[in-house]
Structures are given as C-alpha cells and as structure tokens.
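Recap for those who missed Tuesday's class. We walked through two folding examples back to back. For each one, the amino acid string is listed first and its predicted structure tokens come directly after. Nothing is annotated here on purpose, so try labeling regions yourself before you check the end of the notes.
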Amino acid sequence: MTSAERPAVTPAEQPAGFVLRRLGGTEAAHRADRLAAVYGQAQGSRAEPLAHFAENVRTCVREYAGATVLAALSGGTDGEIVGFLHGCDLQLQHWWPQQIEGALRAKGRETWLQDAFELIELDVLPQVQGRGIGTALLTRQLADMPHRRVVLSAEPEGRARELYRRLGFVDLVPDFAYDGTDYRAALMGWDRQR
C-alpha cells in the first residue's frame, strides 16, 4: 500500500461515549489488574494467566523505555477501562524482539527493528467491540508516537488483522512460529514513511 492509498494518520476522535487517556506509569501499574481483566475477556481461551499479564504490564511501565498505556474509559476520564493499547520502544535485548529478529532478517526486513514501537497489546472488551474504540486507540498512538515504525504480532486470521491492514499495516512474516512452539502468528508492521 502506498502513502497515497493509505489513510492519513491523524488523532482519532473520541469514540462516542468513551474517553481516550494515557495512563502514567504509576497509574498503569496500579490498574494493571483491570488491564489484565480486559485482556482476558478480549482474548478468551488464548489469554495467558491474568496475574502474569498484569505483572508484565507493571514491569514494562516501570522499567522499559518508551512504555505507554493508552486507555479507553467509559464514564469520563476516571471511568472504567474498557479497552487499551500497551507497548514500548522496540529494544533488541527483550524477549519478543529476540524472537522475531531472525525471521525479519531472513526476509530482508531488519530495518523494521529500527526506530520502532513494539505494540505489545491492543484489546477491547467484547461487549463494546465494533464501536471504533480499537481504531481510535491505534490511530491516536500512530499520530502521537515519535517512532517511525510499529511492529506487532497478531493472530493469523481475525478482526485484528483487518483493523491493522485498514490502517496501513503490512505483513512482514505472515506465518511466524515462536521458538520451540507450534504457536503461529503474523508479524505486521506500519511505517510512517510508506
């Protein structure tokens, strides 16, 4: 997709009835259990144990460069979290970048590892999906971030990939397998200058 075909990335409007707000590191750590609950409901049987997910969020916001949590809240700026986007600067010393680095290099796509944001998670509660919350979270992040690129992994099929493609993401490695597992994922990327 060329830049002429891709929609311009501008901050999304607030979805009707919801407020988008970045959580500071302390607040994100404090609300990590709620983020895990949203993640668990959105992912269903694919979810990792929620306590582990919550601890990973806490570690990320306390220790990782560029960590961010952008939340969609119902009922105002202090409302209940109904969706969120979570990520950080892509750092090659972390587990996930180490997992994907070889596959990207094998495809000649190692530049995607430079000046990149690692989108760790984007989840919306099932009962409010389809209201533009995921789109608003992602377009806000793309518009606000200082990075040139975003890299993520998604289920090979499903609504998430449709959202990413609609916003200009491309397949980098469409049939990726994590070391020592049969778990399949699609590695996707977005580049501000494409």
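Example two. Treat it independently of the first, because the proteins are unrelated.
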Amino acid sequence: MRAVRARVEHLETGHAHLREAVEQELEPTVTELRRQTFEQLAMHTAQIRNLVAEAESENHPPIDWPALSVDEASDQWPILAQWIGEVLVPWYEVTREELPDCWALHRPAVVELSWLRVAYAQAHVSAATAGASADWHTRWLPAVLSRVRAVVNRGRRCRPGEHDVSEQDSRARRLEPAPSEPGEATALPHEQLATPDFWWAFYTEAVHSDLARRTEQRHTPPAADEAD
C-alpha cells in the first residue's frame, strides 16, 4: 500500500512538472497563434465586408442619362419619381420651394436628383459606414437641392405651378381667382411638401418628351460624315 501511495505521489509530481514545462514553453506560442488567428479573422471579415459593399454598390450604379436607350429611360424615370415621392419628400420634408414643381422638365435637375438617389442607395446598404450616410445627409442632400433651385430659377420663368411662363402671363394668371374651399387658407410654397400632386403633370410631360426625343434619335440615320 505504501508503495502504491509513493507511486501516486511520484506521478502527481511528474504531472505538475510537465504542466509547468508546457505552460512555460507552449503558452507564448499559443498566445502568438491566437493573436495571428484574430488578426487574420479581422482581415478576412473586412475583406468580406468590402466584397459585400462592392456587390451591393453594383446593384446601384450611377445612371448615365445621356446614354440611356428608350427602354432604359422608360425604366429609370419611374424609379426616380418613386424615390422622390416616397423617400426624399416625405422623410426629409422637402418643400416646393426646395424642389420646384417643374424639376422634371430641367435636364440638369433630373441628373442631379438621379445621382442623389444612387448616392442614397449606396450610403444605406448593409455594409455602408455611418460616415457615408452622414455625408449624404449633411453634404450631398443640401448641395443637390441648392443646385436644383439654381437650375430651375436660372431663366426666372418657372414658379410654383408654372414652367417657362413669362412674368406678364404669370401675373395675369395670378389675377384670376383660384378655386378654393370656403375658409380655406392657401399655404405658401415653403410651407408645402413637394408631393407628386404638384409635379406629376410636369413629370408626365417630361417623360413623354424625353422618350419621344430618344425614339427619334434612335431612328435618325447618322450624318454622312459621321457614317464615314
């Protein structure tokens, strides 16, 4: 019995020495392997996020409006209008003063609003950073709205409910009594959200005009010098 106990104590002592040796010799190696594993995992995670962001961005490419075909333009017009009517105006409370009624009849305004929509989509994908979203809110949104107002007001012939109307004709229209309900107060443009009710007629006119022009260009043969 004494011999067995001595054997057990010997084994316990040997196990303690072995554990101490393993901890002293292998722990730094294990720690280093753990560090390298975490670094590689972080790197791979970042790579995966970048790939996801690239893939999602490819689903929201910038729109080259001058190069669109008739069919492509037919697709892009309603996409832009839906985003303006369902996202831009109601969620950011954009007014008629900020987004004039006839924006769709001004090509530069269409292009500006189109890339604003694409930038919005790219800034709100799952892999986007908070900084990208902040840039959109604080930088791109006010810049585009300012640009749109400048474009529309350039000729000073566009006003709420009017596009390319002379001051004389506009004044004559304003002298005509506007239909309204009894006791109803007329809100000013800066107090009214730019809902589709105000710009839909101009938008429809712009779409028809744009598609007709693209169709005509598609069927117009190139000039002789261009064909050569």
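Answers for example two:
Residues 1-59 form one domain.
Helices lie at 2-58, 70-92, 107-123, 130-152, 167-175, 196-219, 224-227.
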